[in-house]
Amino acid sequence: MIKLLSHLAFVAITTPNVEESTEFYEEHVGLTVTDRIDGDVYLRCWGDYYRYSVIVRKGDEPGLATMAWRTTSDEALDEAARRIEAAGVTGTWSEKGVGIGRSYEFVGPWGHSMTLFWDVERHAPQGAVASIYPDRPEKRSKVAGAPRQLDHVTIAASDVDAFAKWYNDVLGFRIMAKTVLDEAPISVFSVLTTNEKSHDLGVVLDGSTRAGRINHYAFWVDTREELLIAADVLMEHGYPIEYGPSIHGIGEQTFLYYREPSSLRIELNTGGYRNYVPDWEPNIWKPSLGSNNLYRNGAMPMSMTESFPAADGPSATEEGVPDELKAQLLNPYAQHGQG
Ligand SMILES: [Fe+2]
What we know:
The strands form 2 sheets. The chain has a 9-stranded mixed sheet. An 8-stranded mixed sheet has the order 2-3-4-1-5-8-7-6. β14 and β15 form a beta hairpin. With 339 residues, the chain is of the alpha/beta class. It is built from 5 helices and 17 strands. It has one domain (5-336): 2,3-Dihydroxybiphenyl 1,2-Dioxygenase, domain 1, CATH 3.10.180. The longest helix has 13 residues, at 74-86. It has helices spanning 18-29, 74-86, 160-171, 224-236, 323-329, and strands at 5-15, 32-37, 40-44, 54-58, 63-71, 92-94, 103-107, 113-117, 149-157, 174-180, 187-193, 201-205, 213-220, 241-247, 253-259, 265-271, 283-285. Fe (ii) ion (FE2) binds at residues 152, 154, 202, 216, 218, 267. This is Catechol 1,2-dioxygenase. Pfam families: Glyoxalase. Keywords: Dioxygenase, Oxidoreductase.
């Protein structure tokens, strides 16, 4: 298969209170608003190359409206759409979107909207925010620990291996690693990538029957020091840190998780490896090996198993999963013993 996708370009998330979420992204994450169109707010990190990387949209519940990848060419966009439809999924073409050209949006087998496009408007700042350095899309943010750019999105799906296989078979995502429970042969987490990063798409096991949920999405900061400063500043300003700072075993990124006002989880990442091996075979991790916490010394809070919208939210279907199984399945990051 030719390489179809190049990188994650933007995510559109829903929140019950657009203004409250927007203010948080501006004041406490360090994003800037670029557009307000039809109720949607478009934001960017200072180092994003295109016009925006986050769309904040009004919704009844926190959730994922779509996640968008740029293809490698205009031809690759047509080929990706052809492959998706050959796999039995029918999407919708749009001639033009905000800051992007024609795009193809489809809902994957586990209920997640994905948008693909090639033509895109590059960010071209004028005046005070224009950088003095040619490669920088904009001046570095003055907000402490402000991320350089969007990094990845991690969704929840009821079958981690089948999800990874579908996105590998159809769109060429490389499967980089997965976590299987210590106690049972159940895959609870997997990471996929379209480039040299360890992942730009993650999947956690969803024990609910509610389709299309998101666990979190992540931004990139250049250094661990910036991530630590961001953690410090969040704490000082009354925004609790859900988990971290620590280092993931899988991917080896330093991580920090916290919540935006809608309760949706966001993450800061830095460090980690680059992997260019085209025929990479995914390694299998166990939680006890430190898949989530390299140091194997910190239990992950159970709150980290929440995905969005809530499994029992107003649009949810009957869960139908026994409680004891649910507790096990919904806890992909847990430490099992010292390991
Ligand atoms: Fe993540």
